[in-house]
Amino acid sequence: MMKVTGINSTYLIEEISPQHFIDEHYFMYVVKGVVVLYDGNQYQELRSGQSCIARKNRLGRYYKTKEDGELEKVILSLDTSFLKQFYDRHKTTVTKFESTETCIPVNKSELLDDYIRSLQRVYNRGQIRAPFSNVKREELLLILLEQQPELAGLFFDFGIPAKINLEEFMVRNYPFNVSIERFAFLTGRSISAFKRDFRQIFNETPSRWLVLKRLQEAYFLIDQKGMKPSDIYLDLGFETLSHFSFAFKKQFGLTPTALSGKKTKTSME
């Protein structure tokens, strides 16, 4: 059976990773099970036979669910170096890619399904065997561009992120656990310009604002939504439950577990 398949051992995100930055374009195809992708704005569900492109220079995470005890997916990187080599050889026509989605749906087709099945013959221990690596990626790219020519505008745009609305971006993406330098890059700013603009907008340093924003959301989710601390700390950008609990108590004077217990007791009275 085909399990997780990756080119050069690269994956979108391992489990629910503390690193939420999508560093290259990735193709994901679900063979069995369910994969839900979240980009800070919307959730996108992929079931058996469905696939998408996870877009470079975006923030996102995914969650996996087995069906009938099974989960199989294919994830292949379409990195910048590979895409530049492909473009130099094929000189593909490029038009502006209009979609703003982080996870771009890929059209279902028999050709794509046949391609996925063909990977089983060159699959070995979690990777495509070295002699076939670029050949199979090129085959995939040719299929994608034949089915959806507009994807050329996505794959062959080698520019860096343009300057965008910082306040809107941070309010949407504060739960993602990435560095200040990464936030600066994604908003089209140098680190010094990012810090300057951030203080002008929020009247606070980025690090302090991020922690406070995440803790305030945690308090709301526990106190008003009845959620468990262990179920939310990763989604709010904390790497460990102990770090989350320490920061929460420092800010609010009680641990998240104590707040959760207090909320449960109040509900029972």
TrEMBL record:
UniProt cross-references to InterPro entries, sorted A to Z: AraC_XylS_family_regulators, ExsA-like_N, Homeodomain-like_sf, HTH-like, HTH_AraC
All residue ranges annotated as the HTH araC/xylS-type domain in the record: 164-262
Keywords assigned: DNA-binding, Transcription, Transcription regulation
GO function term, MF aspect, one: sequence-specific DNA binding
Source organism of this protein record: Chitinophaga ginsengisoli
Gene3D superfamilies reported in the protein's UniProt record: Homeodomain-like
SMART domains associated with the record: HTH_ARAC
PANTHER family attached to this UniProt entry: ARAC SUBFAMILY, HTH-TYPE TRANSCRIPTIONAL ACTIVATOR RHAS-RELATED
Pfam families: ExsA_N (PF22200), HTH_18 (PF12833)
Protein name per the record: AraC-like DNA-binding protein
Signal peptide limits: none
Keyword presence, Signal: no
